[in-house]
């Protein structure tokens, strides 16, 4: 039985471990931290539970697919489909609740922003068709293996090229489609779902809006951490071995093939390695001396974040599970994140409150606020002062919007920032998604899911193809499985 080492137990690592174990391989997962799940982990601060990283969950069918693969009833993975996609608070005081679903979204765009309902529906339908066309060739297949992306769907994907908006930015496409700048701002926000700027990412990335508005977000029962718990459990049932608190320091190779790994505790021989570590650090730290794909590794990085975890000793009826308080000048905010890499005084603030539905996540009458602003990557800025200034601006802005002094309700608190994202999850410079998608061809500058230099080396997770977010990390594992099957003649 071939031995596989998976480096990292993020969503990409866990789902790769499941898929390769199902192929009959002997899989071990090495995780530097003493917890499983990477960024999808939870912590308790006092009586408040927090999901520490992701909060928006789409495409639960990808988890159900893994359940089915493992012979489980997919309905055992419990989640709720949310009726609201998000509540928006604009800088002029307008508040808009956007419900999930294509018709409902179009109706809201009409009533709140004066957009033509049919026109909005047509736009959202177009995004749905774009998504369906691109998914089999772009998202579920390796772009670097002709036999994978050149499938029967490729013709459909090519025929739709005029509808993607490849040559214009997301913002340009959205502004040309909608008359009210607020409609465009709302759609532009989707660029942040893979850590990019809507003023630079191509209009193609509007397909994210299909997931957010047409399908709508879901929420795992028990919180986002339940995704990693579920995948971890599937791994254990398949006999995957976990080595927690054991950092991998080297991928050993000889004659252009992988022969094992060296960890902080042992040498571990194996024929296959799947790295779920940020691809930049995989080369820098584990493959020293190996020829690097420099062009890919030097691309602009995705954004990072400052997150406050606040246990609030009150409840706020104006707020839902997902809430956005927009910056007045959205473009200036992205300039600060990507160009000057500085603090922006009026940031867009995202507030996520799981205790709205998960009553055990906060004491009665209280709420667990996950308060996030997008931030530049770490290039040596003074993060202590950035965090303290951002805290002040969040408190001032939220207090103004909600009409009460929110600081007095903060009972417990913690925070996260780019340096911590780098040191805890090994994200290069604190970037959340590896490379940004701030250019028309960024998809082609993501690292493939396999090594072109070393036989037996594969890559999964958000820093490689197909990109950022939990669904894409799950798809990266699907591609890894397919590559391994092809390379070793294994059958599903
Ligand atoms: C604040 C924040 C908000 C986010 N919001 C969303 C969201 O709303 N929706 C969404 O879909 N996504 C979101 N994301 C991104 C999401 O977290 C990732 O898409 C997802 O977790 C998949 O990550 P991954 O598979 O690349 O692995 P990661 O979670 O990055 O895990 C990698 C793992 O590898 C381990 N590791 C690294 N190097 C080594 C080594 N040498 N040896 C052993 N172990 C190692 C790390 O410790 C870590 O556990 C967010 C992320 C953050 C930080």
Describe, in plain words, how this protein is organized in 3D.
This protein has 492 residues and is an alpha/beta fold. The protein has helices at 11-22, 61-69, 102-113, 117-139, 146-149, 154-159, 161-164, 170-177, 181-188, 207-215, 225-237, 279-286, 294-297, 330-340, 383-402, 418-425, 470-488, and strands at 3-7, 26-31, 42-45, 48-51, 79-81, 84-89, 95-99, 218-220, 241-244, 248-254, 257-263, 267-269, 272-275, 304-312, 322-325, 349-353, 367-375, 410-416, 457-459. The strands form five sheets. Strands 7-6-15-16-17-14-18 form a seven-stranded mixed sheet. Strands 9-2-1-13-19 form a five-stranded parallel sheet, with helices on one face. Strand 1, helix 1 (11-22) and strand 2 (26-31) form a beta-alpha-beta unit. The radius of gyration is 22 Å and the shape is globular. The two termini are 15 Å apart. The protein binds flavin-adenine dinucleotide (FAD). Residues 7-13, 30-33, 38-40, 53-56, 247-248, 276-277, 305, 307, 372, 421, 425-426, 432, 461-462, 468-470, 473 line the site of flavin-adenine dinucleotide (FAD).
Name some characteristics of this structure.
binds flavin-adenine dinucleotide, 492 residues, five-stranded parallel β-sheet, alpha/beta, seven-stranded mixed β-sheet
**Beta fraction of the residues?**
15-25%
What's the alpha carbon Rg, rounded to whole Å?
22 Å
Average pLDDT, all residues: 97
Structural class determined from secondary elements:
alpha/beta
Ligands, deduplicated? flavin-adenine dinucleotide
Report the sheet with the most strands, covering strand number, pairing sense and barrel closure: 7 strands, mixed
What is the oligomer described by this structure?
Answer: single chain
- The beta-strand count equals 19
The helix content is 25-40%
Number of helices: 17
Inertia-based shape: globular
Strands ordered across the widest β-sheet? 7-6-15-16-17-14-18
Question: What distance separates the N and C termini?
Answer: 15 Å
Low-confidence stretches: none
